[in-house]
């Protein structure tokens, strides 16, 4: 193989710098008065300023002055959520409208309190006591630490992104999409939308649970039909009331969001009051614990609302009678204990305090967990009991577990109580200083809520009895809310406060989710969501609200808070995962635009946040995690397939650049191994006068050869001056890109402007590509009509390109009759691809048919390889050797050896060579200047040559002279006219010299070879779908270039589709694995 010579460097000539003419100032001789000095200096300064601005007048016409640019930045108004960054020019009547109110919200009201309201929610009041009782204090602290650490790390990453420039109102979706690109932005934005929508369903289910369990149990429509029918009845009640509540909330949001915003302060006050009542009750329990008791039968917990007193018998008057509890365990009318439930008969009833208090030492009993299966009875480990079986009917008297519990389940249920950290960034449009308020307010809110959760876990475990903690719905304390039994001054404070807080959180979610969907739809990255970008005249997202209500209804139909919570945990964790990824990518890439004001971030923290998000997803529910990732992946591929034409300066583009740079540096180490060689194409296209691609089938052939793999560079040359032809260059590039898209060619386009086409092609061959990612094969079209063209530059450019590729050690492919090549929509159901292997060229002729057959157009064609045997060759052995070689190459093809015997040169060959040389001589004589040619035409003199190379008898030459009597109108002098007539007289003598020309013997031999080889090829491959054969090299002497073109024409005559191939001087195929 030949080593590639380095491309010579071409230095750009420096343009002369444009300087302003010097300003001459005349100093006065005397300046006695200070005012004169001041006036003179003022004149000097103003003159210099005017001269300076005049020198930049052309720049000021297309670019803004610094003062106007800074004024626009200062008067920046935050655009609406999801709107494009570059808005259209405002209409004339906008100036008459009322000016928008400037954002004036600070850290406290704009970020801290909204984050508190969104983070504190239904889980704190309805499920945290149950989590503590089930997992124990130690594991509950681990759960809280994992979830809060994940959100804290995400908040750090989010703060870095939010402070990296002005963040228009758009929240997490805006940050992710502008940091990671439209594909990730759309996928994560929809996940965030689904999470917010299911959060609305969860809050509504929580509100309905509080309403039906603790506020108004009599409102239940469905009732239990048996001891195990309570759960299904409750689920049906939740579905009915949840649907009604969702419809009512959606109506409120539809009527006006301003009502929701006005009630937000009330809902936040309910949350804060409820939390303070818990702390007050815990402190009060040190000295005066609440008077709630739990009735225990042995060590089993009884449902307190099913009987009046915790005793087997009661005294009525002076008589001892069975209690209501006795009648529940024993058949009615039977006083004998022998007929009662065995467990009831053998165990005693005891009452223990439900809230022993902070000083009771119950914390040691609640330190470790007690995970249960569904329908397991709540038991207290410290109480003695006699184990005995009872009838199944008695199970309804005990407090039982409604679901099977595990550590992973509790993580998924608790995590939604740590979400809501995006509330501050969602309000970035209303903040006075978003870059300062978002980090401070968000991190302070997470710190506050984390401390509340940690302290609540410890207080619940230190104050409340373990069986009560594990009692999810408060059945053991007469169906009171468990956390309400600890609160002060009354359990109703927690019940009412939690109800209003969950209703408010549901309204907030139903308000935010449609706007998020509208933002995604308005960005127009997901076409089928475009309809949801429209809304009412004031911009309210009506259609998005409708879709949100439908999706939230799906969550309502699930009807279980414990099943909905892990679903929204998945979607929120997906969102947080990509927030951390965005920060990590931007930090590691060190893009120039990455300059966040928040300095307390690090890529390691972002990666740790990513790891925690993924871990929490699979800990919570591995199958939900796979579904969520699958949804995000499908959305990503859909946006990528649709081709989201958005350029947001995202980090993924920067990551691609870094990866490309790394890969290019690796490729630069050395040339590729033969096993990795594949044709990296430089396709040379010719543009017509209208700047359209003249032969688009060249691109079709390139796409079929590449099948979407490897490098393809499409180049073209425009003749002219670059400064004057820049517009044509842009138009040509766009036309080529459009044609590449039509022909499905994945690659790059490069158009150069040169004074000569041959120089431009030489520049393309030398400079296209980058580093190790350079072309190794050139594809160019055949110069059709070169015989008829008076301008020899077309075929001279073709031959010069052949020489350039040879000098650069590049392979060359010339598809002849390319207009007959199949399009990408055609299919060959049969036929052959014939390879005529005359000279070994490194295996290009073997590899190209194999690559073409990978495409659906050529897939069903058979491959045939022909080789030529001379007189002294053993054709039988050649066929065996070639078959063995193809077998080792793993290429299936038929092998044929064609014997070509030396024969005498025929008269046809001699005459054709003579015609070729006569034509060359005639063209040299006919290359006159334009002025002389005009004179020849005006004088009536004409040459007409008719040459049909297939038949020498049709060759004739017409030579006409004007008659002596014919008047010629010209403005010549008499001397010039006589000289012209002498030229006319000498012309026949020149023609006679042309006729007496004898052909060169070397040309005769070359023509003989071309004619004989063409006869064999046409005889064997006249019906082939494609013929590939070696392309002879051009002669070293440029004087025989025209003869070289004639040899190629003779070689390929009579063939419909021919691909001339010239190797690059290195092996491209190998038998080794």
TrEMBL record:
<dbReference type="GO" id="GO:1990573">
    <property type="term" value="P:potassium ion import across plasma membrane"/>
</dbReference>
<feature type="transmembrane region" description="Helical">
    <location>
        <begin position="543"/>
        <end position="561"/>
    </location>
</feature>
<dbReference type="GO" id="GO:0006884">
    <property type="term" value="P:cell volume homeostasis"/>
</dbReference>
<keyword id="KW-0597">Phosphoprotein</keyword>
<feature type="transmembrane region" description="Helical">
    <location>
        <begin position="489"/>
        <end position="507"/>
    </location>
</feature>
<feature type="domain" description="SLC12A transporter C-terminal">
    <location>
        <begin position="827"/>
        <end position="1073"/>
    </location>
</feature>
<keyword id="KW-0325">Glycoprotein</keyword>
<keyword id="KW-0813">Transport</keyword>
<dbReference type="InterPro" id="IPR004842">
    <property type="entry name" value="SLC12A_fam"/>
</dbReference>
<feature type="domain" description="Amino acid permease/ SLC12A">
    <location>
        <begin position="405"/>
        <end position="682"/>
    </location>
</feature>
<dbReference type="GO" id="GO:0015379">
    <property type="term" value="F:potassium:chloride symporter activity"/>
</dbReference>
<keyword id="KW-0406">Ion transport</keyword>
<dbReference type="Pfam" id="PF00324">
    <property type="entry name" value="AA_permease"/>
</dbReference>
<feature type="transmembrane region" description="Helical">
    <location>
        <begin position="137"/>
        <end position="163"/>
    </location>
</feature>
<feature type="transmembrane region" description="Helical">
    <location>
        <begin position="600"/>
        <end position="617"/>
    </location>
</feature>
<dbReference type="GO" id="GO:0055075">
    <property type="term" value="P:potassium ion homeostasis"/>
</dbReference>
<feature type="transmembrane region" description="Helical">
    <location>
        <begin position="403"/>
        <end position="423"/>
    </location>
</feature>
<comment type="similarity">
    <text>Belongs to the SLC12A transporter family. K/Cl co-transporter subfamily.</text>
</comment>
<keyword id="KW-0812">Transmembrane</keyword>
<feature type="transmembrane region" description="Helical">
    <location>
        <begin position="443"/>
        <end position="469"/>
    </location>
</feature>
<dbReference type="Pfam" id="PF03522">
    <property type="entry name" value="SLC12"/>
</dbReference>
<protein>
    <submittedName>
        <fullName>Solute carrier family 12 member 4</fullName>
    </submittedName>
</protein>
<feature type="domain" description="Amino acid permease/ SLC12A">
    <location>
        <begin position="111"/>
        <end position="282"/>
    </location>
</feature>
<keyword id="KW-0472">Membrane</keyword>
<keyword id="KW-0868">Chloride</keyword>
<keyword id="KW-1003">Cell membrane</keyword>
<keyword id="KW-1133">Transmembrane helix</keyword>
<feature type="transmembrane region" description="Helical">
    <location>
        <begin position="240"/>
        <end position="257"/>
    </location>
</feature>
<feature type="transmembrane region" description="Helical">
    <location>
        <begin position="106"/>
        <end position="131"/>
    </location>
</feature>
<feature type="transmembrane region" description="Helical">
    <location>
        <begin position="184"/>
        <end position="208"/>
    </location>
</feature>
<dbReference type="GO" id="GO:0007268">
    <property type="term" value="P:chemical synaptic transmission"/>
</dbReference>
<dbReference type="GO" id="GO:0055064">
    <property type="term" value="P:chloride ion homeostasis"/>
</dbReference>
<dbReference type="InterPro" id="IPR000076">
    <property type="entry name" value="KCL_cotranspt"/>
</dbReference>
<keyword id="KW-0630">Potassium</keyword>
<keyword id="KW-0633">Potassium transport</keyword>
<keyword id="KW-0769">Symport</keyword>
<dbReference type="GO" id="GO:0045202">
    <property type="term" value="C:synapse"/>
</dbReference>
<feature type="domain" description="SLC12A transporter C-terminal">
    <location>
        <begin position="696"/>
        <end position="814"/>
    </location>
</feature>
<feature type="transmembrane region" description="Helical">
    <location>
        <begin position="567"/>
        <end position="588"/>
    </location>
</feature>
<dbReference type="InterPro" id="IPR018491">
    <property type="entry name" value="SLC12_C"/>
</dbReference>
<dbReference type="InterPro" id="IPR004841">
    <property type="entry name" value="AA-permease/SLC12A_dom"/>
</dbReference>
<feature type="transmembrane region" description="Helical">
    <location>
        <begin position="264"/>
        <end position="283"/>
    </location>
</feature>
